[in-house]
């Protein structure tokens, strides 16, 4: 049974629809990440789950309960707000304990929980300060702490780590994951723009755009088998390469062809088989392209030159181009190849994606 | 720094290196500004100054007609008379009776109207009330209708429920007439607060009154100060409502001041009149002095953000 079930929910601000008959089921104990471009309605969906926005149409169920008309305080959710929303006239300690005091928790219990959350978020030394005396990252940690001390069944996180430095972000990401493992039947719904967060934390990822959920699947599937062009382009950094071309069947077997470059599709798993001759967009991630420096391979794509090399620490992004076509390739090492060098590329058809350019759907 | 490294911009400024605080130059515009401010201050201060001087003079000095002259023999007699023995109509107990009446009217009126205004503003800006905008518009219209229009109907209503000519009656009238402006003030203040703050409190389990008392009210200090000042001056300076609704026992200070100044029998005691007038103005003055800093801050806070 789903812990959170959003059924055909529509929400509009004035005449502008933000969510349009959106449905999503989140299992008890699941960690769901909402991913999507700015303004696509992630916060709105979270607010609707918390009961802070009335839905225009549709239902929201928590377990057996239909909570569509319930007040936020009766829903048993804890939430981290995108804008922190700390109570300005309360100290950090009072901010953290406010929800517990509302729930008439015992004093000793409150103190223990606040201490535990403060230790985890490294804000023990800030407990007696006011929010206005904190930095952005410190405020954000207090906002997370305010949710963590609560005894909720459902946690809603709206970009909780967006303002932290890389180090703290990694630490807290791990802490949130650990927390989720410890509270085995707590459901967490987590909005982020950070792909690493999405891919590392999530049991499933929902990619949203245009008032709808574009794909809802485990992170590996989102990454390896994106359902459409949007998901393919949105998930993954550096971005997936796209090449326009056609599907052909010169001798029975399907082949992708762009100009005089070809990619045999024997190893490709089709979602639906296209008719030979139809247009297609090939998507390949930079790490799924190999560079062939010596040796022969009739299938390799030749005629490309290294344009720019971007070192990224452990590996480098090598931009190869030939007139209109530009392909980014991920290579190990800091300076794997010199700009201007001629390269031949080997694409892995098993890990590539094909899309219908008209509808954007995966082939 | 040696002159050898003076840059071209420095030279353009006459060889002076721009450093530290920018110098203020006295321009014609500035002088005009100061002249205007000074004359405006004078315009308000002069009458007050004359009142103060006159109240400190004995009657003989006043009769000489030198109203700008400092008192030759300053005395507080007129003040004592104004406070304790000046005649207001038939009784001669001074203005102190009116003072205490005004205090008794002021305290409950201000507390009630400010709290109700805050609660109203909070409900209107945060809670989804069907037709909230219409309600608010009506309330606003109420703020602009001259209240003389309401006097007669209110008198009839009050006398039919038996609170006409009583302390409760006059307090209620002040609360009613204060409501539009108080609500407007608080609604605009709360509308400028981030809504997510309210949402966070709701998720944390707060209800209507808990959020108001624990989250919103503590944040409202600046606007509370503004509201209190407005109401204190408004209620204290009120004349017509007090005259109409308070009843003989509870006549406020303003009405009694009028009685003293306009008493027809005997010689006119200008020094007593002046002293009584200054005494009547003391409360609003004190409020301004005590909270002036807060007042300015409150206006700024309401204008920008909490
Ligand atoms: N109170 C509001 N009134 C009118 N429109 C709103 C309101 N709140 C949000 N919107 C609109 O609804 C859409 C979705 O907003 P939402 O805050 O859910 O986006 P989001 O996905 O959380 O974006 P971000 O990643 O930038 O936080 C946006 O186009 C926004 O302009
Ligand atoms: Mg958002």
Architecture overview:
The complex is a heterodimer of chains A (363) and B (306). Chain A is α+β, with helices and mostly antiparallel strands and 363 residues long. In chain A, 23% of the residues lie in helices and 36% in strands. Chain A contains 8 helices and 20 strands. In chain A, the strands form 4 sheets. A 6-stranded mixed β-sheet of chain A has the order 6-7-8-3-9-10, sandwiched between helices. Chain A has a 5-stranded antiparallel β-sheet with strand order 13-12-11-14-20. Chain A has a 5-stranded antiparallel β-sheet with strand order 15-19-16-17-18, with no helix packed on it. The longest helix of chain A is centred in the middle third of the chain and has 17 residues, at 166-182. In chain B, helix 5 (96-126) packs antiparallel against helix 13 (253-261), helix 8 (167-191) runs antiparallel to helix 11 and helix 13 (253-261) runs antiparallel to helix 14 (270-303). The chains are: A alpha+beta (363), B mainly alpha (306). The structure holds adenosine-5'-triphosphate (ATP) and magnesium ion (MG). The site of adenosine-5'-triphosphate has 11 residues of chain A, from helix 1.
What is the compact description of this entry?
The complex is a heterodimer of chains A (363) and B (306). Chain A is an alpha+beta fold. Helix content of chain A is 23%, strand content 36%.
Comma- or semicolon-separated keywords:
heterodimer, A: 363 residues, alpha+beta, six-stranded mixed beta sheet, five-stranded antiparallel beta sheet, elongated, B: 306 residues, mainly alpha, MetI-like fold, 14 helices, 0% strand, flat, disordered C terminus, binds adenosine-5'-triphosphate, Mo/tungstate-bd_C_term_dom (chain A)
Q: What's the layout of helices and strands?
A:
The complex is a heterodimer of chains A (363) and B (306).
Chain A: E1 2-13, E2 16-27, E3 31-35, H1 42-50, E4 57-62, E5 65-66, E6 77-80, H2 92-102, H3 107-121, H4 136-148, E7 154-158, H5 166-182, E8 187-192, H6 195-201, E9 204-209, E10 212-217, H7 219-224, H8 229-234, E11 241-251, E12 253-258, E13 261-264, E14 279-284, E15 289-292, E16 301-311, E17 315-322, E18 325-332, E19 342-347, E20 353-355
Parallel strand pairs in A: 3-8, 3-9, 6-7, 7-8
Antiparallel strand pairs in A: 1-2, 1-4, 4-5, 9-10, 11-12, 11-14, 12-13, 14-20, 15-19, 16-17, 16-19, 17-18
Helix pairs in contact in A: 2-3, 2-4, 3-4
Chain B: H1 8-12, H2 28-55, H3 59-63, H4 77-84, H5 96-126, H6 132-144, H7 148-161, H8 167-191, H9 195-203, H10 208-219, H11 221-237, H12 240-245, H13 253-261, H14 270-303
Helix pairs in contact in B: 2-14, 4-14, 5-8, 5-10, 5-11, 5-13, 6-8, 8-11, 11-14, 13-14
Bound molecules: adenosine-5'-triphosphate (ATP) and magnesium ion (MG).
Organism (chain A): Salinarimonas ramus
Domain ABC transporter (chain A): 4-235
Family (chain A): Belongs to the ABC transporter superfamily.
